[in-house]
Design goal:
By secondary structure, this protein is of the alpha/beta class. It is built from six helices and six strands; from the N terminus they run E-H-H-E-H-E-H-E-H-H-E-E.
Length: 176
């Protein structure tokens, strides 16, 4: 297995500091877990790291179009099918190409459920409905310009959302 830590990735795109730390930590820990089963390279770019490997490579399907275009343009690299999706890209493309007009998630959910026979009874949806999207799309309260974002209590032991907590009677931690 080849793992490449590319400095250019973090210069090209702004990452939240904690996300960058998470990515680097996960990569380095995985390399340590794999030990001799992995080649771990720290390079300026992915291309520089790939030049150091002579044998053919299988690459997990990238999650961005730019990365996919990059790996498809490399010699000795085979791109593996995407993981983590029930519907194959070709099936999705055929569905999307057959649609005239807007693509709606609700219509895709129905296609996927029928295609993969998930939550269907004969040809009908289990529960009698294909989607609950209408219930999940409530508008914000009338006259509201800005919705408040709940914050967490600053006390480490408390996981209650503000304003229920903080210094109110709803706080579940000791006030010591």
């Amino acid at each position: 297995m080849l793992l490449i830590e590319s400095k250019a990735v973090f210069r090209r795109r702004a990452f939240h500091r904690q996300k960058a730390h998470l990515i680097l930590s996960a990569l380095r820990h995985r390399a340590a877990e794999l030990g001799d089963q992995a080649i771990f390279l720290r390079t300026e770019t992915y291309r520089e790291g790939l030049r150091k490997v002579r044998e053919p490579l299988d690459v997990c399907h990238p999650t961005s179009r730019a990365a996919l275009e990059f790996v498809r343009g490399l010699d000795r690299v085979t791109v593996l099918p995407p993981r983590g999706f029930v519907t194959a890209l070709d099936d999705f493309a055929r569905w999307a190409d057959a649609k005239r007009g807007a693509l709606r998630m609700e219509a895709f959910y129905r296609f996927a459920r029928e295609h993969h026979r998930v939550l269907v009874d004969s040809d009908d949806p289990v529960g009698g409905r294909w989607s609950l999207d209408v219930e999940n799309r409530r508008p914000p309260p009338k006259g509201t310009e800005r919705l408040e974002t709940p914050t967490r209590c600053r006390r480490t032991a408390c996981r209650t959302s503000w304003p229920t907590c903080a210094t109110t009677a709803g706080c579940t931690t000791s006030r010591g």
